[in-house]
Design brief:
Layout (H helix, E strand, L loop, with lengths): L13 E9 L6 H10 L13 E10 L2 E10 L2 H6 L2 H5 L4 E7 L3 H5 L1 H11 L7 E7 L9 H10 L4 E4 L8 H17 L14 H4 L6
Parallel strand pairs: 1-3, 1-4, 4-5, 5-6
Antiparallel strand pairs: 2-3
């Protein structure tokens, strides 16, 4: 008796999301951007006269294929000359970045959040992560300050990373992607993928790495 032909494999569902990097000059947003894009630390990267830069990143969440466009702002003077609304438009996730060695960059995230609130219409569906970069350096930020700001910014994820060493960078990025995807598709957390860290208490206990 002839065996039945194998059933054709189903193609994975495909989804697309947009994530932006926000924070003060010098916190390492572009270094994080390049670490994700190239896997390397580029110390003297020159973005030229670009208003902003973007890249595509493809990963899987569960059985789904997820394509992410990550946006980084260019030089501050160039970014202010462009139409910032285009940068913020159709955003699904935000990485708020500060430098752990510079308390000003941490405090000024409130202003970036005000800008975000002004520019974004879909705030209720926006996923946000708070990123302390340069955790390979001495930390000037107190843990309680970080927790308080996380609450104010309505952040569900808190990570400390180093664009220079690569520590925790990809996990942070993939965690945010997974949270966005779970929310958009209602995929049960833990279905063929690691459950993202969303507990501020757990993720901040080893502050500054």
């Amino acid at each position: 008796m002839a065996s039945s032909p194998p059933e054709p494999q189903k193609s994975p569902r495909q989804f697309s999301y947009k994530i932006i990097l926000l924070g003060e000059v010098g916190v390492g947003k572009t270094s994080l951007f390049n670490r994700i894009r190239t896997g390397e630390f580029i110390e003297d990267y020159d973005c030229g006269t670009s208003y902003y830069d973007n890249m595509y990143y493809t990963t899987t969440v569960g059985d789904d294929e997820v394509n992410v466009m990550l946006w980084d702002m260019g030089k501050p003077q160039n970014f202010r000359e462009c139409k910032p609304g285009y940068f913020y438009r159709n955003t699904d996730g935000v990485l708020f970045v500060f430098s752990v060695e510079d308390s000003y960059t941490f405090q000024n995230l409130q202003e970036w959040n005000e800008e975000l609130v002004y520019r974004i219409d879909n705030l209720d569906s926006l996923e946000r992560a708070l990123i302390g970069n340069k955790c390979d350096l001495p930390c000037e930020i107190e843990e309680e300050q970080v927790k308080a700001l996380s609450k104010e910014l309505q952040v569900k994820q808190l990570h400390f990373v180093s664009a220079k060493t690569g520590e925790n960078v990809m996990k942070t990025f993939n965690d945010l992607i997974a949270v966005i995807h779970h929310r958009r598709t209602k995929v049960p957390e833990g279905s063929n993928t690691d459950t993202p860290v969303t507990d501020i208490e757990k993720s901040s206990k080893c502050i500054c790495c």
